[in-house]
Fold:
Amino acid sequence: MSRRIVTSDRVMPPRMPQSQAVRMGNLVFVSGTVGFAPDGAVARGDIRAQTRQTLENVKAVLEAAGSSLDRTVKVTVVLTDMAHAAAMNEVYGAYFTAGNYPARSLIQAGLPNPDLLVEVECVAEV
Structure:
């Protein structure tokens, strides 16, 4: 199987030593992605705005790998506060098709930047 690093110029480059994604065979593994706009600023607004920007970033990386959100098989969502779960789910549900939802885990943990409220990583089929 071939291994290829995936990057999207529509997403801010990682600030840590990691790839945006790695494609291995017919799978793409997207690193934890947050709500930074392409200019490097945290998406303005509440958890909905950050979730929207985060999922737009994930979508861009998946497309750069030759995949898409509808081919996603597993998602991990990290929230800094579970009180944001309902609002995050409202936005999340608009990005994935009902009846075709990927497997998902939702956890609460701290993120490296205190302004960040959500992080998403996923695995998708190419």
In short: The first strand starts at residue 3 and ends at 6. The chain has a mean pLDDT of 96. The longest helix spans residues 47-64.
